[in-house]
Specification:
By secondary structure, this protein is an alpha+beta fold. The protein contains 22 helices and 22 strands. Helix 19 packs parallel to helix 20.
Length: 725
C-alpha cells in the first residue's frame, strides 16, 4: 500500500517536473498568441498548482479518466470548446509512471488566430518537452526543491488543521453564548436567524405546542410514558410529525443535504427513524420537569438517505413550546471510530487467543519430551553405571537442562510481554525452596569447581506468604547467572527478613566472584536481549533475557532488584520482595493414610512419575486418559491425584470437575495437582476455575513432585471432617 508520504512526494515530483519543464516551455512559446491558463492535477484529481485568479469547472474535473486508462503515447484531448476558448487535457508520465494531468485553457487574443489552430503546435511542444525529461532524473536543485515543497506542504496542512480546530472551538463558544442568550429573550424567527444563521451546528426552530398538550394529557392520566410510547409508537410518532418547523439554518441544509430550506422544513422530523422519534419524545417529556437536561444520541438520515449519528439537544423552550430551538451535534465520525475500535479490539482478542493457543501448543510439545529426557537421565545417574557412562550422562543432562532453560526463558519472556503472569499468594517454606534450587544448580557448579555457600537469617523457621513459583524463578535465574559468569571461586546466597514499619520484606542476595560488570553497562543490564559486552555472547551461553525476566518478576511482586559490581572481581545482586510472615506450623497427614492416583497419557512421563513416586515411598494407581481416572475415582476414591491436563477421551480439567462433583456428594476430600507442559495463564486459570488446587510444570524435578504432595498433605490436614481412603 502506498504511504501518504509517497503520494505527497509523487504529487510534488509531478508539480516540479511539469512546472519547471512543460508549463514554462508552453507559456514562453505561446503566451504571445493567446491567453493561457494552466492546471496541474494529481493522479487522485487534486489540483496541485494553477494559474492565478483562475478556476477549473467541477464538471471538467469530473470528466478526467482514471490513471489506468492512460498510456505514455496518448495525445492531447479536448475537454471543452467554445467560440473564443478551448480547454485541452494532457496526460503526464515520467519513466512510465503516471503523474497526473496538465490542463490548458486557451483564450483568443483580439485580432489573433483561433485557439483551435494552436492545439497541434502546443501538443507537439508538450510531447517533445515530456520526452526530454522522460529519461532524465531530478537534479540536485530539483531534489532540494522537492523536499522543501513536501516539508512546507505538510507544515501548512498541520497549520490548517490547527486553525480549523481553533476556529471550531471559538464558534462553539459563540454557539453556547447564543443558546444562553436565547433563554433570556423572547425568541422569534428573526432573532433566531440572527443568532444561529451561521452556527456550526444544524439548528431548527419548531412549534411543539400540540405535542406539549398531548404529553400533558398523558401525564394527567398518570400513565408510564416509556411503556405507553413503545406500545403505540405509530400514534406517538404521528403527533410529533404534525409539529411545525418554522425555520432551519444553512448548516442544517448542508448537513441534511436538502436542496432548499423549504424542503428541509417540510421533512425535518421525518429524517429521524421511529425509534429515534420515541427517544426524542421522551426527551421533550423530560424537559417539562428538567430544563437543563442532557442531549440524547439518535440515529437520523439525510434527504439522500445517508445514515448519520447525532447528539440531539433542546436549546430553548418557550413556556407554551411555540418556539423551541433544536440543534444537532454530528458524531458520525466518532461513532464509526468507536465501532472501528470495537472491531479492532475483537480482532486483537482473537489474535491474542490464537497466540495463547499457539504458545500453549509450543510449550506442551517442547516440554513433554524434555520432561522424559531430563527425568530419566536423572534417574539413570542414580543407578550403577560405569565412570564413562556417568560422564556421558552428565553431558546429556547439562545439554537438556540448557535447552530447557532456553525454552523456559523464551516462554516466560513472551508471557511477561503479554501480561500472562498472575501472582498467586501461597504459604511456603523458604529454606526448603532454597535447598531445592541449590540442589538443582549444584551439578553445573560442581562441573566448574565452584563452591555454593548459602545462609539464612530467621527465614528458616518462618512460613512466608508470597508467590513461591515466582520467587523460585528469581532465585534460579540469579544463581544460574552467577554460576555461568564465574569461572573460579564461589557463589554465595544469603536470605534474610527485613522488618519495616510498612511491613516485612524478603531480601535475597546472590554474590559471585565472576567477571563482574563495567559501570557503563549497568544501565542496560535489565534490558531484554542485552549483555554487558558483545563478546560475552560468544563466550557464554544465553539469550540475554534472564535478568530482564528477573527484573519484571520482582516488579510483579511489588519488589525491586539492584546490583553492585566490580569488573574482574564479581557481582552482587540484591532482590527485595514484600512478604507476609507466619510463625505457625501445621502437622501433615501421615503418608500411609494417603491414597494417590496418576492420570498421564504419555507412557514416558507415566514411567518417570512411577519411578519418582516409588523413590519417595509412595505407591500410586496409574490411568491413561480422563475417562479412566473418572471411572477409577468413582470406584476407589483418591486423596491426591496427579492429573495431566491434555489427554484423549476427556481432558484433565473436565475430569477434575467430575471427580470433585462425585467426591463432594460422598464427603471425600481430594487434592488434585495439575501436571502439565502448558504453563500459560489461561491454562492455570482454567485449572483454578475447575477447583484444581496445585500446578506443577513439565519438565519437573523429582523434588517438585515431592513438594506438591507435601502441600497436598498440609491442605488435607487442614480440612474439617477429613475422610481418608
Amino acid at each position: 500500500m502506498t504511504s501518504e508520504l509517497d503520494l505527497l512526494l509523487k504529487e510534488s515530483e509531478s508539480s516540479l517536473l511539469v512546472r519547471s519543464k512543460v508549463v514554462d516551455t508552453v507559456l514562453t512559446s505561446f503566451s504571445s498568441l493567446c491567453d493561457i491558463s494552466f492546471f496541474l492535477i494529481s493522479h487522485n484529481r487534486e489540483i496541485i498548482e494553477q494559474s492565478p485568479n483562475t478556476r477549473l469547472p467541477s464538471e471538467l474535473l469530473s470528466r478526467l479518466e482514471s490513471s489506468q486508462e492512460h498510456n505514455p503515447q496518448s495525445k492531447g484531448t479536448i475537454l471543452s470548446e467554445e467560440t473564443t476558448s478551448i480547454t485541452v487535457k494532457f496526460s503526464l508520465f515520467h519513466r512510465g509512471s503516471f503523474l497526473g494531468w496538465l490542463i490548458l485553457t486557451l483564450k483568443k487574443h483580439p485580432e489573433s488566430a483561433k485557439p483551435s489552430l494552436l492545439i497541434k503546435p502546443i501538443s507537439t511542444s508538450v510531447e517533445m518537452t515530456m520526452k526530454c525529461f522522460e529519461l532524465s532524473e531530478l537534479n540536485d536543485n530539483n531534489q532540494a526543491r522537492l523536499l522543501q515543497y513536501s516539508s512546507e506542504k505538510k507544515h501548512l496542512q498541520a497549520r490548517y488543521e490547527t486553525i480549523a480546530m481553533e476556529n471550531l472551538a471559538v464558534r462553539m463558544e459563540i454557539e453556547q453564548a447564543n443558546l444562553m442568550l436565547a433563554k433570556d429573550i423572547k425568541l422569534t424567527e428573526q432573532k433566531f436567524q440572527k443568532l444561529f444563521a451561521t452556527s456550526p451546528f444544524p439548528q431548527f426552530l419548531f412549534d411543539f405546542t400540540k405535542v406539549r398538550e398531548w404529553l400533558l394529557k398523558i401525564r394527567a392520566q398518570k400513565i408510564e410514558l416509556n411503556s405507553y410510547l413503545s406500545q403505540i409508537s405509530e400514534e406517538a410518532c404521528s403527533h410529533l410529525l404534525q409539529s411545525k418547523c418554522i425555520v432551519a439554518n444553512q448548516t442544517a441544509q448542508i448537513y441534511f443535504k436538502a436542496p432548499t430550506s423549504s424542503q428541509l422544513k417540510s421533512i425535518a422530523l421525518k429524517l429521524l427513524p421511529p425509534k429515534s422519534l420515541i427517544q426524542f419524545l421522551l426527551l421533550l417529556n423530560e424537559s417539562l420537569d428538567h430544563p437543563n437536561h442532557e442531549p440524547i444520541q439518535v440515529e437520523l438520515y439525510t434527504v439522500t438517505s445517508d445514515k448519520k449519528q447525532a447528539l440531539l439537544q433542546i436549546g430553548h423552550l418557550e413556556q407554551n413550546w411555540s418556539m423551541v430551538s433544536l440543534y444537532c451535534l454530528d458524531i458520525t465520525d466518532r461513532v464509526e471510530m468507536e465501532e472501528g475500535l470495537i472491531q479492532a479490539k475483537m480482532q486483537a482478542e482473537v489474535a491474542s487467543l490464537a497466540k495463547s493457543k499457539f504458545l500453549a501448543v509450543v510449550s506442551h510439545e517442547l516440554r513433554t519430551p524434555l520432561n522424559g529426557i531430563i527425568g530419566f537421565t536423572s534417574l539413570l545417574m542414580d543407578t550403577l553405571v560405569t565412570k564413562e557412562q556417568l560422564n556421558h550422562l552428565h553431558y546429556i543432562i547439562q545439554s537438556s537442562q540448557r535447552l530447557n532453560s532456553l525454552v523456559t526463558d523464551i516462554l516466560d519472556f513472551v508471557r511477561l510481554e503479554s501480561n500472562d503472569f498472575e501472582v498467586e499468594l501461597q504459604e511456603f517454606n523458604l529454606s526448603s525452596m532454597l535447598e531445592d534450587t541449590v540442589a538443582h544448580c549444584l551439578v553445573a557448579a560442581t562441573a566448574k569447581g565452584l563452591k555454593i555457600l548459602y545462609s539464612e537469617t530467621e527465614s528458616a523457621s518462618v512460613k512466608i506468604t508470597s508467590d513461591p513459583v515466582i520467587i523460585q524463578k528469581i532465585l534460579d535465574i540469579l544463581i544460574s547467572n552467577a554460576i555461568k559468569f564465574t569461572s573460579a571461586g564461589h557463589v554465595r546466597i544469603h536470605t534474610r527478613i527485613n522488618h519495616k514499619m510498612s511491613g516485612s520484606s524478603l531480601i535475597i542476595e546472590v554474590e559471585d566472584t565472576g567477571i563482574g560488570i563495567k559501570p557503563e553497562h549497568l544501565s542496560s543490564l535489565f534490558l531484554p536481549f542485552s549483555q554487558s559486552d558483545s563478546s560475552i555472547t560468544r563466550c557464554y551461553d544465553g539469550l540475554g533475557i534472564g535478568l530482564t525476566i528477573c527484573h519484571r518478576l520482582c516488579e510483579l511482586l511489588q519488589g525491586s532488584i539492584t546490583v553492585d559490581s566490580v569488573p574482574n572481581q564479581g557481582s552482587k545482586f540484591i532482590a527485595e520482595i514484600p512478604v507476609k510472615l507466619n510463625h505457625e506450623t501445621k502437622e501433615s497427614v501421615s503418608e500411609t493414610a494417603i491414597s494417590v492416583a496418576v492420570a498421564e497419557d504419555c507412557p514416558t512421563n507415566a514411567a518417570m512419575l512411577k519411578e519418582v513416586l516409588q523413590a519417595f515411598g509412595i505407591s500410586a494407581h496409574f490411568f491413561t486418559d480422563g475417562l479412566q481416572i473418572v471411572h477409577g475415582a468413582a470406584k476407589q476414591p483418591y486423596n491426591i491425584i496427579l492429573m495431566d491436563i491434555y489427554m484423549p477421551q476427556l481432558d484433565g480439567v473436565e475430569a477434575a470437575k467430575q471427580i470433585f462433583a462425585f467426591n463432594q456428594n460422598q464427603g471425600i476430600n481430594t487434592y488434585i495437582i495439575a501436571v502439565s507442559a502448558s504453563v500459560t495463564l489461561s491454562d492455570k486459570r482454567r485449572c483454578q476455575n475447575a477447583g484444581i488446587q496445585d500446578f506443577v510444570a513439565k519438565p519437573f524435578r523429582p523434588l517438585d513432585i515431592k513438594a506438591a504432595i507435601e502441600r497436598g498433605k498440609q491442605w488435607l490436614s487442614s480440612q474439617p471432617n477429613l475422610t481418608l481412603v
